[in-house]
Amino acid sequence: MKILILYASFGGGHAKAAEALKEYYTNFHPDYKIEYIDALKYSSPELNKLLLHSYIQLSKNAPKAWGRLYHLADNHKSITDISSIASKVASKKFKDFTINFNPDIILCTHPFSMDMLASLKRKNIINAKIGLVLTDYASHSIWETQSQYVDAFFVAHPGMVEQLTACDISENKIFVTGIPTLQTFHEEHNREIVLKDLDLDSDKFTLLFFPGGEYGLSKNMAIFKDILRIPNIQIIAGCGKNAKMKLKLEKLAKVSTKKIRILGYTDKMPDLLSACNIVVSKPGGLTTSECIVTHTPIVINSPLPGQEDHNSNYVLNNGLGFRLFEGTNKYLTLKTIITNKKRQEQVIEMQKELAKPFAAQNICEKMIELTNKK
To answer: Are strands 129-133 and 2-7 parallel, antiparallel or unpaired?
Structure first.
């Protein structure tokens, strides 16, 4: 069987979800032929660079404008059509690849390539089963534009079923699987060893801070200063590829008496989550899912208007974490959260109840089942 897994590198979460799907097929169906592709970059590196740069600049420097654009696109088909036009313009190279590969299953963790795939399926050029894996805790109209050519929608929670059926998508096509995460997030990690490797104490409250990687906002400096004021904690900060943010945090850390480790890009996220007591982060879809499946309370800070607001609402409405609201004393709120062990335990219990650690398995196996029904 041939599997085509498509993503786009906006924010990192789409690629990480696609990687989890690839990992499952590779480990449990080693005889399958798998292609794992950044569809936008493959189609047009120039367009990919332009759109990615625009996304970074908007989210970093004008988050409110990004939020307005997100909601405008969700409510006005003409705006959503811009994405469809971009997909069609950039798709010839990728179209040829897809036809030649002739997959049995196509899984998309980003909707960019859906117009091209719909065209091929409508003309009976390909006969693959197509599955869309939504990587946030709410849908958006861009996922729904070619629903008649989609065989399965995989969503994070039951509330999204109602969202999609309201758009005339058959409930029979919608599967509540959760957002796929890598297998290592579901495995045991030795907290003491992880902390020892970082030269940190295993008996001290450990806070993990993610300022947002390459999309970090200036507000992260202010919240880090608040974190430094909290007594009796040690801190790990993961800055991703944001070298400027890393240097700024290192400068602040040098004048603190706390044990602090400032990290750049790391693939040790499962280790870090297992080692910490709480995470302060923006609520990206994958970051949120990784916190839930590892039973690590998340404290949401400065969500990006749009999809991250939806993710934040899901977390708060289901008791899966906390939020530092703008206009409040974030230091006092965070200090209260850290000292309230009972509340943290309640969050962990809700995470255990709602976590979906087998999302990748359930998505991949459902697509095999649908394909075998042809």
So the answer is: unpaired
- Of all helices (H) and strands (E), which one includes residue 58? helix 45-61
Q: Residues 311-349: pLDDT tens digits?
A: 999 999 999 999 999 889 999 999 999 999 999 999 999
Cα→Cα distances 195→62, 230, 244, 246, 254, Å:
37, 20, 25, 20, 20
Give kind and range of the element (H or E) at residue 87: helix 77-89
Instruction: Please tell me whether the overall predicted TM-score, pTM, comes out greater than 0.85 for this model.
Output: yes
Report pLDDT for 79. Answer: 47
DSSP string, 305-328: TTHHHHHHHHHHHTTSEEEE-TTS
CB of 109 closer than 8 Å to CB of 80: no
Sheet of strand 129-133: strand arrangement: 33-38, 2-7, 105-108, 129-133, 152-155, 174-176
Nearest to 144 by CA among 233, 75, 92: 75
Domains 2-181+357-372 and 184-354 are alike in CATH topology = yes
Give the CA angle between residues 273, 277, 281 to the nearest 5°: 65
Selected from 3.40.50.2000, 1.10.10.10, 3.60.150.10, 3.10.20.70, the CATH number assigned to the domain covering 2-181+357-372 reads: 3.40.50.2000
Domain spans, the chain: 2-181+357-372, 184-354
What pLDDT score does 357 carry? 96
pLDDT digits (tens, 9 = 90+) for 137-175: 999 888 888 899 999 999 999 999 999 999 999 999 999
Rounded distance, CA 300 to CA 316, Å? Answer: 9
- Report which secondary-structure segment, H or E, holds 301: strand 298-301
Q: Would you put residue 235 in left (φ > 0), alpha (ψ -120 to 50) or beta?
A: beta
Architecture of domain 184-354: 3-Layer(aba) Sandwich (3.40)
Contacts of residue 147, Cβ cutoff 8 Å, sequence gap at least 6: 153, 164, 167, 168, 169, 173
